[in-house]
Specification:
Shape: globular
Helix content: 40-55%
CATH class: Alpha Beta
Distance between the termini: 57 Å
CATH superfamily: NAD(P)-binding Rossmann-like Domain
Number of domains: 1
CATH architecture: 3-Layer(aba) Sandwich
Strand order of the largest sheet: 3-2-1-4-6-7-9
Radius of gyration: 20 Å
CATH topology: Rossmann fold
Oligomer: single chain
Number of strands: 9
Largest sheet: 7 strands, parallel
Structural class: alpha/beta
Strand content: 5-15%
């Protein structure tokens, strides 16, 4: 396959973790990729051996002007974007009560509003060509809120709900949408990238406080393999009918399975009383 015939991937957040490993896998296949990071120098090594097929560009997803420049550069270099991977983001942990407003808003700017903005910038080209794949890297926290990760979970729940609507809007246009939901993976998420507000209120020591300590202390020992996750993301992008959501890692699969079972049990227990709130004799 000639380089001009290969799919074009646009991946955000490639300096470390999922983004970096996925970009390497894509380029190793001989495909084309736009590899982005807030500091482009951190990803130039990924593209050095792939002249004509790879573009390294600076992209802070919270800055509209950088989004516009990066998408325009991708279009000029390769003619369009076939696969968008919204991977950029990070974790912020605190108890709900101790959350710091500036940190909460920064979390949403990167994980939510930045992802929205990048997608809006890429959609016109996909819509015009009537094809495309959007992979939104969310989290098991997009399905389950854990103590100490309430604001992070809220950001990922927001992307999940938004993706439901997006998928319904763009499916008739030939564009597929999947949320990729990792559990604990051996990336930098729980290490250098993680932001925490220290738990000082004793009443939360056994809930949020314990989780903050466990998360930071477990960095580097997670069971999830980001390279295997990258291979699965490639498989999803090549599938004509990918799932709307997919959980990655055995821990995450088990946690979501238990959560779904508990939700069904609770829903069924309250189904009749919830339905009975309609006007009598209607519906």
């Amino acid at each position: 396959m000639a380089a001009a015939d290969t799919p074009v991937w646009f991946i955000t957040g490639c300096s470390t973790g999922f983004g970096r490993d996925l970009a390497q896998l894509v380029l190793d296949r001989g495909w084309r990729a736009v590899v982005t990071a807030r500091d482009a120098s951190q990803v130039r090594d990924l593209v050095e051996m792939h002249e004509g097929r790879a573009l390294a560009t600076a992209l802070d997803v919270t800055k509209d002007e950088e989004i516009a420049v990066a998408v325009e550069a991708a279009t000029e270099a390769f003619g369009g974007i076939d696969v968008l991977v919204n991977n950029a983001g990070y974790g912020y942990q605190s108890s709900i009560e101790e959350g710091i407003e500036a940190e909460i808003r920064a979390q949403f700017d990167a994980n939510v509003f930045g992802l929205f903005a990048v997608t809006r910038a890429v959609l016109p080209g996909m819509r015009e060509r009537r094809r495309g794949c959007i992979l939104n890297v969310t989290s098991v926290a997009g399905r389950i809120g854990f103590p100490g990760s309430g604001y992070y979970a809220a950001s990922k729940h927001a992307v999940e709900g938004w993706s439901d609507a997006l998928a319904k809007e763009v499916e008739p246009l030939g564009i597929r949408v999947t949320c990729v939901e990792p559990g604990p993976f051996r990336t930098d998420w729980a290490g250098r990238s993680l932001k925490q507000t220290e738990n000082r209120i004793a009443d939360y020591a056994e809930t949020a406080g314990a989780r903050l300590k466990g998360t930071s202390g477990g960095s580097g020992g997670q069971a999830g393999d980001p390279v295997r996750a990258g291979r699965l993301m490639i498989e999803l992008a090549e599938d004509a009918h990918p799932p709307r959501q997919i959980v990655l890692g055995a821990w995450g699969v088990d946690a979501v399975d238990k959560r779904l079972a508990a939700q069904r049990e609770e829903f069924d227990a309250w189904r009749r009383r919830g339905a009975a709130t309609d006007y009598e004799g209607e519906g």
